Amino acid sequence: MPRLLLIDDDEQLGAPLAAYFRRFQFELQHATRPSEGLKRLRQGGFDVAILDVMLPEMDGFELCRTIRKDSQIPIVMLTARGDVMDRVVGLELGADDYLPKPFEPRELLARIQTILRRAAPANGHGARQLRFEGGLDVDLDRRTVQRGAETLELTSTEFELLVMLAQSPGKVFSRDDILERLRGQSAEDIHTRAVDILVSRLRRKLEPLDCIKTLRNAGYTFAGVRV
């Protein structure tokens, strides 16, 4: 049963949300303070963290940054409705997805199910790897990425984006293509911005390799050469 940790200072939110998720075989625990949430996360055993932006002790952005220092657990940010900057900043700090408040529990469930599907290892037999000049090695089954001797720490969303591009070198993917693959929905202005942020994050982690190219008014393509 997947285990979720909600970190939100609204004491009335956790119990009804946990009851809803139990209907779908998910266990949701609730921490009302970041310090408590961090302690639980460090004990391990959680599959997704759900962070509110407005928190005591530290805001959700600082909490996301702190988690990302030593964990690649999928993170969903709960943001103020209509506040574009909350969503942009959360993505830049390494969140995998965002959901405006107030939200429908079924939408949060759908977002988490999508994230967990992306993070699940493949069930095929035999190693499946993508290898490129410059020492880039993507292991599809173990969901690991090597750049030379270094193992890169990618979120599940970053990994899925890299695989999408790297499996079809030279193919141009529009922002809508990427959103439909990663989130299963059509793009809006903020969603388009989210793709740019995600690509920027992935590029920084791949440096000094320069294998993701931008085609103006078209989208992105992978320029790596298979070996």
Oligomer: single chain
Largest sheet: 5 strands, parallel
Number of strands: 11
> What structural class do the secondary elements suggest?
alpha/beta
Average pLDDT works out at: 87
CATH architecture of the largest domain: 3-Layer(aba) Sandwich
Kindly report the name of the CATH homologous superfamily of the largest domain.
Response regulator
Kindly provide the name of the CATH class of the largest domain.
Alpha Beta
User: In terms of per-residue confidence, which ranges show pLDDT below 50 for 5 or more consecutive residues?
Assistant: 185-190
| Count of helix runs | 8
* Mass-distribution shape: globular
CATH fold group of the largest domain: Rossmann fold
Counting structural domains, the number is 2
Tell me the fraction of residues in β-strands, as a range.
15-25%
Main traits of this protein?
single chain; 227 residues; alpha/beta; Rossmann fold; Arc Repressor Mutant, subunit A; 2 domains; five-stranded parallel sheet; four-stranded antiparallel sheet
